[in-house]
Amino acid sequence: MLSFLVKHSLVFMFVAAIVGFLCPQYSLAFFPFLPYVLFSLMVLTLLSMKQSALMKVLLKPMVWKYACYHSFGLMVLCVTSSWLLGVSDDLMLAIGAVAATGSLFATPAIIRVLGFDVLMAMAMTIASTLLLPVAIYLLLLVTQAGDIALDVQTYSIRLLVFIFGPMFLSFLLHRFVRPEKVSRFLMAVAPYTVLLVFAFPFGLIGEFRLMWDESPMMAYQYLAIGTFLCAVFFTTGFFLYRAKGIELGFVAAVASGNRNVLLTYTIAGGLLGPAFLPLAGAIQAPTYLLPVIAKWLAKRIK
What we know:
Helix content is 82%, strand content 0%. By secondary structure, it is an all-alpha fold.
């Protein structure tokens, strides 16, 4: 059963979002446990990487150019387009916040399933996450009046816990444990790393289901907007980096399409307006459909 789930994990990530929508009480109940799942996923993913190699990739100018496109370029594009289309202020703010959000921490695990460059995916995830508070601050500066108070302290703690903490644990493991023991351990836990990803679409879609129960037509509009945003993120990432190789194009596309909306809400909270959480829930199904599309496209292109 486990091997079947792992083999078809990309499909089951999307199925997890559907199950969370159909069972909102369980989705909402599971939501508070997502940070623990996130930490476990980051630890298991980073343990498979030598931190010296990751740092070399993270210091490449291309990674930071990608992060600027991911955080600032798409935010400007989405906010400008929303303003020209006459979108309401609350929804425009929510769209801009989603566009500014860093890549989902589960992205490297998804890229591993696709068989692409995990180190590059992790570097893109870390870089876009580090730029997130700057992007959100600029967004609020443009769209909000009065004082802006981001919870930078909480964000810094989460960076230490979810990124630098697992990186340090990985460094200690590779420094003091023999390579063959590390390899055996990683082979044993690798299937469970993939299964942890299922928790995110399942636990994050509950807020969208609440909107659907209250106003189905509004929920359909948010779903359409979320699907369109994911498509824009994915396609622009692919075509911008396709010239550097098909594999890098798909890594950039998946990293761009995945958005860590939970972390964005943590640092900005109510400043993001009432439309953010429903939109964050609405993007879950299309977000986890993108890797399935990426796998199909990769086979066709190859």
